[in-house]
Amino acid sequence: MSQFRIKRIGILTGGGDCPGLNAVIRAVVKNAFQEKIDIVGFRDGYLGLVQDDFQPLGPADVSNILTRGGTILGSSNKDNPFHLVEKDRSGKIRRRDRSGDIPQNLKKHGVDALVVLGGDGSMTVAEHLSRRGVRIVGVPKTIDNDLMGTDQTFGHDTAVSVATDAIDRLHTVADSHHRVMIVEVMGRYAGWLALGAGLAGGADIILIPEIPYDERKIGETILDRQKRGKKSSIVVIAEGAHPKGGKMVVDRINPLSAERIRLGGISRELAGHLETQSGLETRAVILGHIVRGGTPTAYDRNLATLFGVKAMELVAKRQFGKMVALRDGKLGSVPLSKVSGKIRIVPLKHDLIQAAHKIGVSLGN
Ligand code: F6P
User: Within 13 A of 23's CA, how many CA atoms are on the CB side?
Assistant: First the structure.
């Protein structure tokens, strides 16, 4: 491969936002400045790349954004350039493959390589673009921590921390009112967030999608606690958790989105059933998007900075078609083909699950 000098790099943030996106953008832009490389930011994820909506990014643009949640570039978890939803002149909605516009737009701006910050949807698109010759490097983000090929995504630590804080606060409400409080957290089809925050928040019961639960057993655990003098119980449930033989609760279907299903609401369903079964007042609290907003933790700021710098290293070494990864505490990379179209759920033998068992936390099974 010819070793042409990389002069300009494009960057975009795709998928649901999370704390740390700005910290990665900052690291990339600052590192690029040192290396005399220009950065072009594309707005609102892949949409900006297709529609050629962009902004040059220099050190002044990333000043004071390390601690800022969200993304200065905007994001989208709906727009897949291979099936972009568009309205025709009559207002009718149709899907079109606009991926062909991407190489053209990159060429127009003299962009030699693209850095994509995103979750599994964005990495899947990145892999398809990479197979079509776009020089691309991925950076793993998501509060869900469900990306294949890396032990950690940035944003997850902050979400765990915010959810833990909420659980801490709900302990006192539960105690004062002798209630069962059910706290529902996001995480899609993986239980990383519920497990991490549930353990850190001292939950009595943690329910995750990987372990379908038995409502009768949950009721027994709560009544058993009551017999032992515990007047309140805290249940942390992942939005994707479901009873044995039952289904996940869908909050909404967005026909215009690349991923149509949005989960949510299982806590309300469970609260109703448990209240009837146990006779104890039971309330559901859905944390939802709150855990996605605000300042990243120190851990996420540093992980994001390391990831940004590593992405620049991969570009400099022409290691395209790869995603930055953290495995066994070491920073490295993984081919996008190993990430694309997959998700990483919690292995049943994971240390957090074993620890929960060993300290008597019920996983509802
Ligand atoms: O992937 C991040 C995430 O927050 C999931 O945990 C959640 O299921 C989904 O995005 C929510 O998406 P939206 O922001 O479209 O409601």
Answer: 26
Return phi, psi of residue 282, to 5°. -130, 130
Cα(263) to ligand 1 centroid in Å equals 8
From its phi and psi, is residue 32 left (phi > 0), alpha (psi between -120 and 50) or beta?
alpha
Q: Is the CB of 43 under 6 A from ligand 1?
A: no
Nearest-angstrom CA–CA distance, 38 and 74: 20
HSE toward the beta carbon, residue 336, CA cutoff 13 A: 29
E strands, the chain, where? 8-13, 38-42, 54-57, 84-87, 93-96, 113-118, 136-140, 180-185, 205-207, 233-238, 250-253, 261-263, 282-286, 322-327, 330-335
CA 30 vs CA 132, 163, 280, 333: distances in Å:
29, 31, 55, 21
Give me 201's structure tokens: 């928040």
Blockwise average pLDDT, block size 10, the chain, 365 residues: 82 97 98 98 97 97 98 95 88 91 96 98 98 98 98 98 98 97 98 98 98 98 96 98 98 88 98 96 98 98 98 98 98 98 98 98 98
For 263, half-sphere exposure in the C-beta direction (CA atoms, 13 angstrom radius) is 21
| Distance separating alpha carbons of residues 226 and 198, to the nearest angstrom | 20
99/51 Cα distance (integer angstroms): 11
Measured between alpha carbons, how far is 111 from 90 in angstroms, rounded to an integer? 35
Whole-number Å distance between alpha carbons of 42 and 72:
10
The one catalytic residue among 112, 144, 204, 300:
144
* Cα 2 to ligand 1 centroid, rounded to whole Å: 41
- Print burial letters for 104-133: b (CB count within 10 Å at least 16), e (below 16): ebbeeeebbbbbbbbbbbbbbbbbbbbeee
The three-state secondary structure class of 84 is strand
The pTM score is 0.97
Residue nearest to atom 14 of ligand 1 (CA): 16
